[in-house]
Design brief:
Oligomer: single chain
Strand content: under 5%
Structural class: mainly alpha
Mean pLDDT: 90
Number of helices: 10
Distance between the termini: 8 Å
Number of strands: 0
Radius of gyration: 22 Å
Shape: elongated
Length: 271
């Protein structure tokens, strides 16, 4: 049993459970304000206290988990759905104009961080969770393309791939039937890493006002709203900060654990 994998699964599972539970139950409505109970410390009535509007922080954290996980998941799906085919195509045509175009396109996207891309998109379409998803998803495309290409290139020289070519299979079919299943472990591990980075990116974009807009709860916006009240009511910033740290840490531990579990060279070791 790998302690890191277990710890990562537990932390990630707690965040996912909070997000799923928020779909059917919340201790208080996220829009319920009680100005007379503003900035209350944690208590039996409000497990994580209340914010400057008197809203229950625990309810906001649960609903914010839903927003953060959904944005990160869809963004990773976009990056993987587009980046992996590009990477496989580039590896299948290594050294060709197609490979060169794909890889130079990846370099171009890498030249613009997700925050810059988000600012550009927001300037045209306005700030929203959807635009945050698009910005983070675009930045994920070259990441998965490079991972897929690197993994595929190491397989194209192996005997079973050459045998498939001799049997008359085309490069596209070989990529799907033989290459993709054998680099799935790399993509899964990279997916968990990008998922954690997606949560950080969503929090950062919401912090500067480019992510999910009110009244949609967001961990990043909770931190932004709490920055002027840290000395007066530390719990207002403490709990969303801990939620981000715990979730990102859990996903990183999960990714490391999966890497060790899926790597044949490390399967016999105990982390």
């Amino acid at each position: 049993m790998r302690p890191g994998l277990v710890a990562g699964a537990v932390l990630s599972g707690l965040a996912l459970a909070a997000a799923l539970l928020s779909l059917i139950w919340l201790p208080y409505a996220v829009s319920a304000m009680a100005i007379g109970q503003r900035l209350q410390p944690p208590s039996a009535a409000h497990w994580a206290g209340t914010d400057h509007f008197g809203r229950d922080i625990a309810a906001l954290l649960m609903a914010g988990a839903r927003t953060s996980l959904a944005v990160a998941l869809v963004a990773v799906g976009i990056g993987m759905g587009l980046g992996v085919p590009f990477g496989l195509a580039a590896a299948a045509r290594r050294g060709s104009w197609l490979d060169e175009v794909i890889m130079r396109g990846n370099d171009l996207i890498f030249a613009f961080p997700s925050l810059v891309i988000a600012i550009l998109i927001t300037a045209v379409f306005g700030p929203s969770a959807v635009n945050a998803i698009i910005a983070i998803g675009i930045f994920n495309i070259p990441v998965f393309a490079r991972v897929a290409r690197a993994g595929a290139l190491s397989l194209w020289t192996l005997d079973y791939v050459r045998a498939a070519q001799v049997a008359g299979k085309g490069r596209a079919r070989i990529s799907v039937e033989h290459i993709l299943p054998n680099i799935a472990n790399l993509l899964i591990v990279q997916g968990t890493i990008q998922f954690s980075l997606g949560i950080l990116a969503e929090a950062g974009l919401s912090y500067v006002g480019l992510g999910a807009q009110p009244p949609t709860p967001s961990w990043g916006r909770m931190l932004a709203e709490a920055q002027t009240m840290v000395t007066l009511a530390p719990h207002v910033a403490l709990f969303p900060g801990l939620a981000i740290v715990a979730t990102v840490l859990g996903l990183n531990l999960l990714g490391d654990g999966l890497r060790d579990a899926l790597d044949p060279r490390l399967r016999g070791r105990v982390a």
